[in-house]
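Tutorial, part two.
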Amino acid sequence: MNAKGGRRVDFSMWLFEQRKRDDRVGSVAFDAYQEHLNGEWPKIGTLQDYLDHMKESGVRGAPLRALDQAWWEYIDVVTKDIAQHHLLHEVGAVVERALLKAEHLEDGDRYVIDGTYVDRLQKLMAKLKEI
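Running the prediction step on this input gives:
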């Protein structure tokens, strides 16, 4: 993590800059840029918002993983304050979605949260501690 001298750019702009890369991040960046040109790419949001947008557009599999990979690369190149800001917003977005999909258990005030949300929260919190 680059605490000093990192970039101060929002995720979408950074992603659009990656569109000429010859890998899966470049591919998803190119597609996102095309959506941006057509006015379809969300102007601002969390990674979870961008993933939801792509899922609503029928995207599955590798492009979603590529967007996730791009977001983590982005977190590593921005300044510490920008990274913390995005990580905290992402934690909120993941918690919100986890709670919306939580299943209430019949025996009291207990809920079941999908393990993928728990894994994602653990990864986000570990990165926050790291920086």
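Residues 80-100 form the longest helix (21 residues). In part three we will examine how such features are distributed along the chain.
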